[in-house]
Design a protein that fits this description.
With 736 residues, the chain is an alpha+beta fold. It contains 17 helices and 42 strands. The longest helix has 26 residues. The N and C termini lie far apart (98 Å).
């Protein structure tokens, strides 16, 4: 009995071990055997999957200082040739400034481990021994044998340097200086493929493989012929494959072995086929058709996988198993030239993306394992115009690739709960790193220790170019807490003989109107306001918080006072039909205006000369009992969370914002940038301004709601002012 039990237990143990071994084997990744695609073709199975497989590990800025154009030269082309043994090869093509022909090229290589260390080899095109009058490089690549192949077209010109004919196409192999001649002139003429311009070909429609075959894609040349044309080294047609007119031929892709793949998209059935020329049988093979695919461009090939772009995704296609997976979202790379994207692998199988933006080249090191999520520096706009900061955020991401800035705008009217939540987070020591707030909120949060002083973030040298008006707007108790997104000056002009001084009060304004020294006609900007109601609205926006209307010390409303009655009555109820704009020269009017362009003021640093002085006007500001009604306004204040953990990122953002390019960009929609320009506006003019007191929207609403009855003729002015006075007094009693 014991023996039977022992045997049973032994069988159970063996079975368990076998099951465990099978389970372990099933859990191990199965390596796909290398597939010879030229023999077995490509496969495609199932729909496109979505599974991120690559994560950004680090951006490496490539050395952009080399090579340089010489005198009389311009850089025409910059090609990424590929990577071999951890070395990335690039080709820089230079031509004479006034001609398209190449005069020299510089081959560079840089290590994926240190993109700033670059070696370069310079070759004068004239020394290659081709005997070509006007050489133009069509394409270049690097083979697995560490051989750089340069494909060149030669052109003939007459005595005046005018293009006359295309002579030949060549391939040049650098290591043994082998020249392969492909004479296709007769064929090009016969097929009407020679364009009228100097450039006969480009790397996108004429290419060759290492077997000596030459390919033309008339569709890429702008011709209506939807074909792939294969020629031999003598320029004779070997094969022609034609497609329907709705087809679109993508840029040819060269495999690591030097073969050429062609992607042909069929617009009518939304599919892409991949073709290849089999030189052994002299046929073009359609390797596969990809359903529901609009393949933008191949970017790499590694192992059994092809990588291509589709819309904003990087797709990995395992052509041995047929699976296709969206592995990376291009939006994570920021703004860049999509045509520059190339995928590379070094000897350690580390994947890289080579990209180029408007200013720099980058090697983006990827990881096949999720790395720690990039710390996001969050910028939230609660007050202001979002359009001004979006470009700044994009520029900060471009200039600081290893930082990630995220921007969002919150609509205070539509999403008040979200605003309250963000401000509560800020008060609790959390929340966004950078915010755009009103000046009122900025002052409140600064007093509570919730903001980081700009003086801790910006050096004295970095602050020096900032306009004094911007410093005033961002200062609380003498310390700088914020930077305005943009600034605008609002003031008034009066005929120079109306006032001896350069300021005026509201009682003086009333006396001037009563004595007919001025007509109650306002010119706002360049527009004559025909409606006295609009004129009063503009005036009251800037004067409503003056002591003339409210005794702010004793919190007493004065809207029933005789002088206020007289002021509004002097404007009357003028409407459009009662004011002829042709009579403007007969009026002695006052003018409200904003300084937001160079044209509004003189560029003479020693004078505050305004264009309108020639017309007999001077700057006096809005009527104000404190003697200064020249105001500077902001369109939102940039502030920094006192508890931000991204100090370096915030500094980088501020430096981007204060750059000349961004400041020129934000000088839109009636606002100026906050830094001084080369042709500085007169500083004295802005020094006259004081920040506009925080507008009280409640007071404005009360006044505008009730005074409308007077202008519409529904109520006497006395009744309107009595209601305004009562409502304002009630507001003062409840709020202060």
């Amino acid at each position: 009995m014991k023996r039977i039990i022992y045997i049973v237990l032994l069988w159970i143990l063996v079975g368990t071990l076998a099951a465990c071994r099978e389970t372990a084997e099933n859990q191990q990744p199965r390596m796909t055997e290398a597939v010879n695609w030229t023999e077995q073709g490509f496969r495609v199975e199932g729909d496109l999957e979505e599974k991120q497989s690559f994560w950004i590990k680090q951006f490496h800025l490539c050395n952009n200082d080399v090579p340089k154009a010489k005198d009389g030269e311009v850089l025409r082309q910059r090609l990424c040739l590929g990577v071999i043994k951890n070395e990335v090869y690039q080709l820089y093509l230079f031509s004479k400034e006034n001609h398209a022909e190449c005069c020299r090229y510089v081959l560079t290589k840089m290590s994926t481990g240190d993109p700033l260390q670059v070696q370069q080899t310079e070759v004068e095109i004239a020394n290659l021994g081709w005997g070509i009058d006007v050489p133009v490089v069509l394409d270049a690549w690097i083979s697995e044998a560490d051989t750089v192949v340069l494909e060149v077209a030669g052109y003939g010109t007459n005595d005046q340097g005018v293009f006359t004919q295309a002579e030949h196409f060549f391939s040049f192999v650098q290591d043994n200086r082998e020249i392969k001649r492909v004479d296709v002139l007769d064929y090009l003429k016969e097929q009407d493929l020679i364009p009228s311009g100097l450039m006969v070909g480009s790397r996108y429609f004429a290419t060759s493989d290492l077997n000596g075959y030459f390919y033309l894609l008339p569709d890429r040349l702008g011709k209506s012929n939807k074909s792939i044309l294969v020629l031999d080294t003598n320029g004779n047609e070997v094969k022609r494959v034609s497609f329907q007119n709705t087809a679109q031929l993508s840029i040819p892709f060269r495999t690591p072995e030097g073969e050429i793949l062609f992607a042909v998209s069929q617009n009518d059935d939304y599919a892409t086929s991949v073709s290849w020329f089999d030189s052994e049988i002299g046929e073009v093979k359609s390797l596969v058709s990809l359903p529901e695919t609009k393949l933008d461009r191949f970017v790499g090939m590694h192992g059994n996988c092809i990588y291509y772009l589709e819309k904003n995704q990087l797709i990995r296609w395992d052509y041995a198993t047929g699976t296709r997976t969206a592995v990376f979202d291009l939006i994570n790379l920021g703004a860049f030239d999509r045509n520059s994207l190339t995928m590379l692998w070094d000897e350690q199988e580390v994947p890289f993306l080579f990209i180029q933006d408007s200013e720099s080249q980058w090697l983006v090191e990827l990881s096949d394992r999720e790395v720690g999520e990039q710390a996001r520096t969050e910028c939230v706009m609660i007050n202001g115009s979002a359009g001004r900061l979006k470009e700044c955020i994009a520029a900060a991401n471009r200039q600081n690739r290893n930082m990630h800035f995220e921007f969002r705008a919150v609509d205070t009217a539509q999403n008040s709960d979200e605003v309250s939540r963000i401000l509560a987070e800020l008060a609790a020591g959390n929340g966004p790193d950078i915010l755009v707030l009103s000046r009122k909120d900025m002052a409140e949060f600064a007093s509570k220790g919730m903001l980081l002083s700009m003086e801790e973030l910006l050096s004295q040298q970095e602050m020096e170019p900032i306009r004094n008006a911007a410093i005033q707007l961002g200062s609380v108790d003498g310390e700088l807490w914020g930077l305005p997104v943009g600034i605008q000056m609002r003031s008034m002009l009066l005929p120079e003989d109306v006032l001896e001084s350069n300021t005026w009060t509201l009682p003086e304004f009333i006396r001037i109107l009563e004595n007919k020294k001025l007509e109650p006609v306002l010119l706002d900007g360049t527009s004559l306001l025909h409606s006295s109601e609009i004129t009063v609205r503009i005036l009251m926006r800037y004067c409503l918080q003056d002591d003339f209307f409210i005794d702010w010390t004793n919190k007493k409303s004065h809207f029933q006072d005789e002088e206020i009655f007289r002021l509004i009555q002097l404007f009357g109820k003028r409407v459009t039909e009662n004011c002829d704009p042709t009579e403007i020269d007969e009026f002695r009017y006052y003018r409200s205006f904003s300084i937001d362009t160079f044209g509004s003021i003189s560029r003479d640093e020693e004078d505050i000369s305004i264009d309108y002085e020639e017309q007999g006007y001077k700057l006096v500001g809005f009527p104000n009992s404190k003697g200064n009604g020249n105001y500077v306004l902001d369109c939102g204040m940039i502030v920094v969370n006192a508890n931000t953990k991204h100090f370096s990122e915030v500094k980088a953002f501020l430096n981007t914002f204060l750059s000349q390019d961004i400041q020129e960009m934000v000088s839109t929609e009636g606002y100026l940038g906050i830094i001084k320009t080369e042709n500085q506006e007169p500083n004295l003019l802005f020094d006259m301004c004081v920040p506009l007191p925080e507008e009280n929207e409640t007071l404005q609403t009360i006044f505008f709601e009730e005074i409308e009855g007077y202008f519409s003729g529904e109520k006497p002015l006395e009744d309107c002012l009595r209601v305004i006075d009562n409502r304002v007094q009630l507001y003062l009693d409840e709020s202060f």
